[in-house]
Amino acid sequence: MLQLPFIKENKALIVERYKKRNLEARETLDQVIEKDNDRVKTQQALDQQLAESNKLAKEIGDLFKSGRASEANELKEKTAQLKESSAALKDKLAEIEESLKQLLYLLPNVPNVIVPQGKSDADNKIIEEKGSVPNFGFTALPHWDLAKKYDLIDFETGVKITGAGFPIYKGKGAILQRALINFFLDEARDAGYEEVIPPHLVNEASGYGTGQLPDKEGQMYHVGVDDLYLIPTAEVPVTNIYRDVILKESDFPIKNTAYTPCFRREAGSYGKDVRGLNRLHQFDKVEIVQIQHPEKSYEALDQMVAHVKGLLDKLGLPYRVALLCGGDLGFTSVLTYDMEVYSAAQEKWLEVSSISNFETFQANRLKLRFKNGDGKTELAHTLNGSALALPRILAALLENYQTEDGIAIPEVLVPYTRFNKI
User: Fold this and answer.
1) Coil, helix or strand for 150?
2) 20-47, pLDDT tens digit by residue?
3) How far is CA 325 from the centre of its chain?
4) Would you state the pLDDT for residue 376?
5) Are 33 and 2 in contact (CB under 8 A)?
6) Helix 171-190 vs helix 297-315: angle between axes, to the nearest 10 degrees?
7) Considering only CA atoms, which of 382, 397, 304 is closest in space to residue 109?
8) What's the burial of 45, exposed, middle or buried (CB within 10 Å: 0-12/13-18/19+)?
């Protein structure tokens, strides 16, 4: 959530940067500023009345002590009127603050100056490409056919048990999935991330804290009776560990990693892009999260990008790095890099990771602060990234490592799988 002083002092900059998102928010910004001015005036009026009430209370006490009860009782009537008026002002102030909060929830984060202008992922800027696309001497199969041929993933029974987008991993397919999870967690641990196992359901406050609510409410599975949400990513529970926390500068950097299943409704998804593992409602992911000092967050972002690139290098997958344009940028993000791997059989690039800096946007919602060297309280910066999301990584491994008589296993995974070929 944007901070009010920032909005008031930088309205023109925000309007200009929002153009990268193809968003015209001048009217909403004006409403926010006007509503905040009303809040300030109402607060001042309330403070004045409370001060007058306190002054009268002292005078009444002095009058009673000096035996001037009739004068004291006259002032008590005035005090009663002030209390009634103050209560009305308190109600008005609460109404203004709630209305202001709802307006602020409508405003996305302000894109970094280097974010390209654009409307969709077609306008993202490719800043790096690495690795060679496999050149098969035979007709390559897509991963859903490979999964069926070698009995690795059962999509049909998953549909019977739950529905489309809930596959069953079997035999060596399940072992390969678990091998990837353990490999990613071990690599994160070696990079200084502390592993946590968070809850897989969160309350509404957690959803608002990281910005999934109200922006992505339709994409989250809601358990109505308990008013809980299945997590769309470990980002939500892990970052919320630090909600309502005041840190010390010496606490930075805070680095956590977590493996969780993730649940997304993916409303509106259809067609060939959702076939097989390309887009699921339940999938596994290893997440990395950092809570950083504002002066260090972009250095941390670069380190996180390098970490994910290192994973893809070790897996031997051809990949590219995309700087997201404003139209493809997430609601809460200032700057995001997507990592995409090449799917040889599908002949297209598949997104496997998004790595984002949110600056103070989430921290403001979370009330995640720290005491700086001068003893003043500041908002921390939050970052996260997939390291990595499993479905499309598994799809790319099956397709890119296929041979005429099986599927080879990347050398780095063999200690985890205990076999080198399917």
Assistant:
1) coil
2) 999 999 999 999 999 999 999 999 999 9
3) 17
4) 95
5) no
6) 140
7) 382
8) middle
Q: How many residues does the chain have?
A: 422
301-339 burial, b for 16+ CB within 10 Å, e for fewer? bebbbebbbebbeebebbbbbbbbbbbbbbbbbbbbbbb
Distance in angstroms (rounded) separating the CA atoms of residues 50 and 331: 40
Angle between helices 171-190 and 390-400 (to 10 degrees): 120
Mean of the pLDDT values across residues 114-124?
97
- The CA–CA distances, whole Å, from 358 to 14, 27, 165, 380, 393 equal 15, 24, 30, 10, 25
Compute the distance between CA of residue 205 and CA of residue 168 in angstroms, rounded to an integer. 32
Quick check: 364 and 283 in contact, CB under 8 A?
Answer: no
- Taking the C-alpha atoms of residue 268 and residue 194, their distance in angstroms, rounded to an integer, is 36
Q: What residue type is 282 in one-letter code?
A: Q
Question: What is the residue-wise DSSP string for 363-388?
Answer: HHHHT-EEE-TTS-EEE-EEEEEEEE
Q: Which residue has the tokens 């600056």?
A: 359
Tell the residue number behind the tokens 């072992």, with chain if given.
175
